[in-house]
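Curious: why this fold?
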Amino acid sequence: MLFFHGKRIFSAIFDMDGTLFDTERLRFKTLKQASVEIFGKALSEDTLIGSLGLSATKAEALAKAHNGENFPYAEIRKRADELELEYVRNHGVPIKAGLLEVLERLRKSGLTMAVATSSRRAIAEEYLINANVLKYFDITVCGDEVSQGKPHPEIFLKAARALNCEPDQCFMVEDSENGMLSAIRAEGQAILIEDIKPPAAQIKAGALKAYRSMHEFLADLSECVPDLGMPALSEPFPASLNQFSVGIHGFGAIGGGYLTQVFSHWDGYTRPREIIAATRSRMLRESVNAFGRYSVRYGATSFDQTIDNVRMIDLDDDDAVIGMYTTAEIVGLSLPEQAIRNQAKVIAKGLLQRFERRGRELTLLIVLNKVGGAAFVRRHVQAELALLCPPAIGEQVLEKTHFAETVVSRIVSKLSNDALVRQLRIKSQMFQNSLEDEPAVATKASTPVPEYERLIGRFRPFAQPSSAMSQLHLILFNSEPDMPLYVEHGSELLERLRQVKTVPDITQIQVIKNRLWNGPHAVVAWYASLLGHDSVGQGMGDARVSELAERLIRHEVGPALVAEYPHMAEVVSRFADTFLERCATSFKDPCARVGRDPLRKLQRNERILSSIDLARKHGIETPALTFGAALAIHHALRCEDSKDQEAQAIRQVYRENDASVEAVLTRDGDCNGKRFPGLHPIRDEQLITAISEAFRQYPQRDMATRRDDLCIGA
């Protein structure tokens, strides 16, 4: 039962053409074509619009009134049916945007449902099956099963009786004037979803509610259905697919291991029909596209979650990325700063093409460990738009794009390429063994083949043994189980996503999360690595690492944040507890990955040094943070990853300046395409001295073996 605008609703009865499906326009086209073929002249718009919602008999009478008694309407209608079916079988039924979300909400609210259509049963059933929505309806009443068509109320009354429901307790959802008259005369709760021709004002006034689109009805309906709340980790994704495509621009740890989950849970009622994900990794693209799905492993709960309906594209294929921005309803942008600078042009092209072709708004979900990340992306996209189109068009494109700032409360790591290859090798052997074990099916040539066997035979060459396929899911990411994605208010779409927690001001949460997680996370990884540990979880088993983590969080960064934002003390405590708990079990979180890019972490306004400033502002001593800054340089000097250009830059400055820590900290140069904001030699002299002293206290060689020399209390 649903309580909707003062009415108790137990059932919902839907018209089909023009309400469930956008077929009225298709019907107009096929009737015109059939009329030209048979009669030599197209039916007029007046005839077509006047026949909306009418039974075949009444539509024929109207056509003959306009074209003469000899008008071959029955023959034209039959030919139009053939043309329409041909289109539907080749292209599918055009479903009204928002329909599936509406049907899911009504069904999960306990309503029984019916279709009441003027179309013949043969047509209606084919359309409902083709569109995969027949499952929502308990009964169907068709035009060839009633004696009087719309606007007579018979068809709605018959459907209500079949549902054992009083008409005044039924939604009767229509798009046409004749359909509305039928629903009103049946004394149902008429819901108008406008289509080609809005009903006359006096008829529209008889509706319980009138909407310009199914999405408007959905928004109103959403206020009346239960709030499903944040999903549990192991809760299945919705079974029904909606009409949306979504995009992931950057299929890294967060993009592939978190945003895909957020999009798959969607609103709890449906989920997107396709996730388009862009990555440069050919191995990832080929692997996911071959299997059609992949899994994220939550080691702390021994749970593997499978993400399907994923299509991978090449990040360097501009046309494919532009196409993603054109078609997707929401895009998760999860790239580093420099990559965003490099991709700004293709993003701008995608937004411009979307504006020109669709004119629809786009939500751009920006996952960037940076306060002001949305403004950063918008600024670079705006600069590229200025080169692509006139300023007025560029402003309209930006107005249609919601740049959504986010805070991720989860630690995710991507499996290495070597680990993926090992999985592929094992899965390949399992699949081959299963194929070899599959029993052969013996058939006799003389035995008549039943029709079902002949039909199934068309699919069999494309099917794989289910026992083999069930094993073929690849683990691509290891993740911690934290669910909420914090996003700033501003997009209606984001308000509907079940795993998204919208907040009025994201800035403070960003600062708290960045200070509590990003800086300390890197410090813990550097220390663990220097002590010879491969993962953060292993490192936390070393008392020196765990004590450093506790000191950073409980005695320096956490207290400084509470002093700065006393009203956010509970949030600080929650993030602090979560961080320490997750680090302790992050056995698949490589120190090498967490500790990469040390130069940006030593910027004046970033993570470690800014946390030192904040703590000192409130009179809090910072030996652990100072030690962490020194560890960044030690880590860079021993980094073996040739791709970590920031570590190489630190080594170069250090060596070119006679092993000077001060030269690294006050570096004057470029970092990720912009000026590096290092420490000031004079204003920050005290801090530079403290970090330099911390650096010198520890040996610069054999760090992994001389563990006793590496203790924060030295």
In short: Confidence is low (pLDDT under 50) at residues 464-469, 700-714. The CA atoms of residues 239 and 350 lie 30 Å apart. The chain has four domains: 2-21+94-223, 24-91, 242-413, 505-707. The chain is about 50% helix and 15% strand.
